[in-house]
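pasting input
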Amino acid sequence: MIAAANTSYLARIRPGWKFGALLILSIALYLISSWSVLLALFIISIAILLSARVDLRQLRLPLISMAIILSVVFVLLGIQTDWLNALRAVLRLLTMCLLAYAVSLTTKFEDMLELFQQVASPLRLVGGNPAQIALALSMTIRFIPELKKVYVEVREAQHARGLGNNPLAVTVPLVIRSLKIAEETAEALDARGYDSAPSPRQH
Amino acid sequence: MELPSIRLENVSVRYDDRVALRELSISLNEQRIGVIGANGAGKSTLSRLLNGLVLPTDGTVHIGDLNTRQHSKQIRREVGFVFQNPANQIIMPIVSDDIAFGLKNLSMPKSERHQRVAQTLNELNISHLADRESHTLSGGEQQMVALASVLAMRPQTIIFDEPTTMLDLRNRLAFQREIAKLSQRAIVVTHDLEILEDFERVLVITDGTVAFDGAPAEAIAHYRQWSHA
């Protein structure tokens, strides 16, 4: 999920501060054992998310998925340990997820990548290239929906030929088309002057 | 804007044992140039030679004083390329970030970059797409974003490789209007012969050679005749 244009107070806070605070809060949540404090923090996280003026429609599906997963976690933990412990675990996870949504949906993707490059800059010492890793990360996010489209197209075509349930009939064209996309994208990177050498200065 | 001359001197391109272009010597100085021909005739190879994406097996390609073999980096700044399938040309998940991608590679300062992106989006009347996720764009919108990402680099020449193949009529006409408005040189490889009506020069490529080189009407007539033969 990527941030749309957000103009809330959270969007004006520097990404480094936001992600740093999220990291510290996430660790702190595991040091708190009182369910009432955890409940209060959960309510605060809801308030933060609502006040961040994010598009709640964008959150509908992830929240439904999260609710299903956490329900399973709650039941399993409740059966294996005790119900209060299960409640604490679920409250912690819910608070963390809501805060993570509030941070990521109020931070521009470009700023997140820059932050990632700064955090990963020590990798240069061992020959890593943070700019390249950041590009790979952003391209992964960019092309997942494209590959999903290709998968749907291939599956429909194979269904039309009566091969819908044959995994090989779907996998082979999917791999071939993915390679074709990779080839064309590499050519586009080249045409757009992408230089894989680390730039002397990052803005 | 004074446009650099593009010169191909005795250019041949071979892929393993297949000859894609043979001993081509042409000079391109016009502002609107079309390239037509059958599938596999060598059109795409020719277009890719002009910004150094493909290097000649024999011969040389010059853009002004620059040689594609020696100055590929500078040439890619001066010669932009719009691909047939814009979905694979858009690299970043957000439209404005994608348009800024090439500028970032030039180490342009952030404020200047943002200004250039906004200006380019405005020129193409697509400012409303700035914060959209790339995969949610329609085919026509993707093609406009691909053009914006090239225009943001302020190239002197733009090569279009079958730019309207994946567009409906409305988007095709809109894209055609944008090409007509460009102050840059446009070299358009296409099967869409209507686009070429107002062009100054059209090359017909057949079996890796220039079979006809002249005004659009004559070139199209020549191509039709060849296709019916």
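fyi Chain B touches chain A at residues 51, 53, 73, 76-77, 80-81, 83, 85, 87-94, 96-97, 100-102, 104-110, 113, 130-131, 133-135, 149-150, 153 (CB under 8 Å).
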